[in-house]
Amino acid sequence: MNIYSIVLYLHIVGALLLFVAMGIEFVTVSRLRSTVTAEQARDWLSVLGSIRVIGPVALVAILVPGLYMAATSAGWEGWNILALVAMVGMAALAGSNAARMPAIGRSIGRLRDRIVWTSILTRIGIGLGIVLLMTAKPDLVGSIVALVVFAAAGAAVAFATSGTAPGSTEPRGLERAS
Q1: CA count, 13 A, side-chain hemisphere, 135
Q2: Cα dist from 32 to 40, 114, 169, whole Å
Q3: pTM to 2 decimal places
Q4: Which of 109, 118, 135, 152 has the highest local Cβ count within 10 Å?
Q5: pLDDT per residue over 140-163, tens digit each?
Q6: Distances, alpha carbon 94 to alpha carbons 2, 36, 129, 140, 172, in Å
Q7: What distance in Å separates the CA atoms of residue 50 and residue 63, rounded to the nearest whole number?
Q8: What is d(CA 127, CA 62) in angstroms, rounded to the nearest whole number?
Q9: Alpha carbons 178 and 48: distance in angstroms, whole number
Q10: Burial of 44 (0-12, 13-18, 19+ CB in 10 A)
């Protein structure tokens, strides 16, 4: 085992942690969409606390080894530059969700926030696109196409599912969830 193998392992673990964090967020947001009481909303919103730890750890575990690999052996190519740009975009979208969560927690009427739903599904699409870039290492045009297609697919799924969650009812006269 050499340094590169260890660094690659850490990079892959970071990617797995990123998908764990997005999975937690996806489940939480999808469950919030069918919540009908303030207590249910508080319970699901409390799950997001784990993302405050997992997210930054994942980001460091992806970026530090990724930058090391690009600087020492892989070199800077279109696919890894676009993957880095896409990670910045994912972080910005995650930040927009994080900024919206306190307001959602205060108002049960906002539990079906379409921006939050679209953000998580688009980030999952982008994340899957980045995995494609990491494995296939396409040229610049192929990298752009892949990221656009995957992001659009995530947004399309969000649009198709952005109505009221199946089996849910509108909140019952509650103004505040916290």
Answers
A1: 9
A2: 8, 12, 11
A3: 0.81
A4: 118
A5: 999 999 999 999 999 999 999 987
A6: 34, 25, 17, 25, 29
A7: 20
A8: 12
A9: 15
A10: buried
